[in-house]
Design brief:
Length: 205
């Protein structure tokens, strides 16, 4: 189980599938985890496109916004960062954390990380995890993958990054979209030894 004294960084990039981030946040906060959240600039556009919802730019308003979307009012700790604040605590290797998840992860983010580029706080925080040898988990949400995508993902995997594509399973007999999403969230959190999502796991035949 994750040490609650060390926060977890949750990055949300501009890929489709914000429900993955919302469900992850729901279970993490409900389990009393401390979350440092940074959403990329493009995430504002995706919220508008997928849900016709405006995500506020101010960090304090964002905290309330994400809690409302996740349906968790008070549990856990949540701190949101502006996407352009490259001087934030999570931008430094001296910041103690248990790792980082980027969910969903765009192919643009994958490409920049694979080539050591960081133009905003999300990318910088992820780059820090790689250079410090900490756990970084990416949940790419794209299809099909081009050869360039695959090569970038391979580069990151060779650097120790865990890749968990948003590809659901069916053996747990999903009945709702949330069932499918929660399976991916659970498998993503498994990479950080966090078990707080109530899913039906494979028990063998």
């Amino acid at each position: 189980m994750l040490n609650h004294h060390k926060p977890l960084i949750l990055g949300v990039s501009g890929a489709s599938g914000l429900i993955y981030a919302v469900r992850a946040l729901k279970f993490l906060l409900a389990a009393d985890h401390e979350i440092e959240l940074v959403a990329s600039k493009a995430t504002h556009i995706v919220w508008q496109a997928e849900q016709n919802i405006r995500m506020p730019p101010e960090p304090t308003q964002q905290e309330q916004f994400w809690r409302e979307q996740a349906g968790v009012e008070t549990a856990g700790k949540l701190h949101c960062h502006p996407w352009g604040d490259v001087g934030a605590n999570i931008a430094s290797g001296s910041f103690r954390c248990s790792g980082m998840i980027v969910m969903p992860c765009s192919m643009s983010t994958v490409a920049k990380l694979a080539n050591g580029l960081s133009s905003d706080l999300l990318e910088r925080a992820a780059d820090v995890q790689i250079k410090e040898g900490r756990k970084l988990v990416l949940v790419p949400r794209e299809t099909p993958f081009s050869l360039i995508h695959l090569r970038n993902l391979t580069t990151l995997a060779e650097a120790g990054v865990r890749i968990v594509p948003a590809i659901p399973a069916w053996y747990h007999n999903p009945q709702t979209i949330e069932d499918l999403v929660d399976f991916i969230v659970a498998r993503t959190l498994d990479q950080l030894d966090i078990d707080c999502v109530p899913i039906k796991r494979w028990q063998g035949r």
